[in-house]
Design brief:
The complex is a heterodimer of chains A (292) and B (336). By secondary structure, chain A is an alpha/beta fold. Chain A contains ten helices and seven strands. Chain A has one domain: Rossmann fold. Helices cover 42% and strands 11% of the residues of chain A. In chain A, helix 8 links the parallel strand 5 and strand 6. The radius of gyration of chain A is 18 Å and the shape is globular. Chain B is an alpha/beta fold. Chain B has two domains: 163 residues, Thiamin diphosphate (ThDP)-binding fold, Pyr/PP domains (Rossmann fold); 134 residues, Rossmann fold. Classes of the chains: A alpha/beta (292), B alpha/beta (336). Chain A: This is Transketolase.
Chain lengths: 292, 336
Amino acid sequence: MSTHQPAAAPARVADSADEHRLQRIREAAQRIRANALVQAEVQGQGYIGQALDIADVLAVLYADQLRLRPDDPTWEGRDRCLLSIGHYALALYAALAEAGVIPREELTTYATDGSRLPMSAMASYTPGVEISGGSLGHGLTIANGVALGLKRKSNDAFVYNILSDGELNEGSTWEAAAVAAHHGLDNLIAIVDFNNQQADGKSSEMLGMEPIGAKFEAFGWVTRRVDGNNVAEVLPALEELRSVEDPAPRCLVVNTKLGKGVDFLEQREKLHFMQVAPEEWKLAHDQLKEQA
Amino acid sequence: MSTVNQSPKRLTSDAMSASLARADQRVTAAPLGHALVALAEQDERVLGLSADLAKYTDLHILRDALPERFYQIGMAEQALLGAAAGLAMEGFIPFASTYSVFATRRAYDFLCLDIAEANLNVNMVCALPGLTTGYGPSHQATEDIAILRGMPNLTIVDPADAVDIEQAVPQLAAHDGPTYMRVLRGKVPRVLDEYDYTFELGKAKLIRGGGEVLLISTGLMTERALEAAAALEEAGVDTAVLHVPTLKPLDEETIRRELGRDRLVLTCENHTIIGGLFDAIAHMLVRDGTVRRITPVGLPDEFLDAGALPTLADRYGVSTDKLVERVLGLRRSQDA
């Protein structure tokens, strides 16, 4: 195992072509947020805070980084994006709709009887959903097997696993972190959403896991940490993690803000499961439109 | 310990190298490992994984013969089953090994959600089922089948001997879904090749006919049931043995047919009498509306003692001798 550099400030994307690319991703992120609101409104509540916080990262993935064919979600050459955190389902469905894997009109069926879009994301229900998340601490263990399998097949696709800061409480995540490093899984990128929120309160007050990056680094991972709500930081970081030469798995910790993009949700008491009043949905949509 | 052996030389627990075979028995060494090598040589999708127990589950045979087909995951059972799931998602056929206690008690959630819910072709091959070690409750999987029977999609196999294991391995791989097999390791007795028998996944097989007593057995208890039947024959008691290697799905048709005759019936299992073969048959009979007395022979509803296997098998009534005594006792009480 080679030594790893400490987390450095990410490279900035500068020229106009890159600025155009960033603008395209930012617009995708706002549409992903709007898609998430459409779903949450069906329920009148939900994991909307998390969906808004992860939208920028999902936009970088689904509008730029992931190799995928929207009309062939099981295409052998695709990058596999595994969502551990099943309750982020509406964010993933929002991104899959943005990528054209599922029709946007279907989003209004979210968590209703008979829908392909259940409240917790499951592979058996939804095209483009690779694993059944929800029981936390599983995703990275499965990602290891997928990454090993891809290597056996000489398939150069990447495996992404999106997990949360709270999920790091689960010991299985660290079993998996050790296994990934031991087997040199350089085709694996873990993305940890650090929104400092889990079911019972602030992650830092429930079971503090900081320093997260240093923990992964100590396990043998190449690690970076950026503002997860700034696509100009997320994009180059993910590009770098995909291209570094180290024979090691990679981890990007993204600092995100629960409810990002809708000010009254950003300022609301931070809750795992947010209530939104009926009249607030339109206000939220309007704010996103203004930012676009 | 309630029973203290006062003889000069006491039997020992012999935990790590325990072999179930007696000195005079025909045996095959590491039948699981050799069956996996044979299968892996024919099918490149077949892989082995272990959680630091390759040597103690006979997967070291595969590891040493085809090292590129084996993954050492380390002492991390959750990561083992998750990785097996991921490999199966990519089209491979993993056989993941550890001890039964760790696969079922420790990594249940991973087996359930990552493998069974996704209905992946992952085969768990797990050693030290029931009372096959004297090490104590940390290693004795006395309730693994009770834990697993409620898991949808999962096929559960408890083989009797080396013949069962050798014949089961390719069938487990060919089965399009998750399986759990209780592994007998080391020098494993060969018993069933003396009979007109082949292992068929999902099927119960009548190994030996008999008009007075029916022993319905699974796993290593089939060997003891056959020995008991031979001893009972000498005592003038005509005893049949029905071997049920696949516990889920249960071959209800065959079991119903054998229960249709008027015989004294016992179930024999290397497992607590709660949640295993006896319960599965009782479940079927009640559903059928059938009232039938069946005597369960199995492990008690308690954490077992540490000790030597022959001592413990006698203590808990699952040795051949105790099985014979049980049958004769039941017949006496019937006659009374």
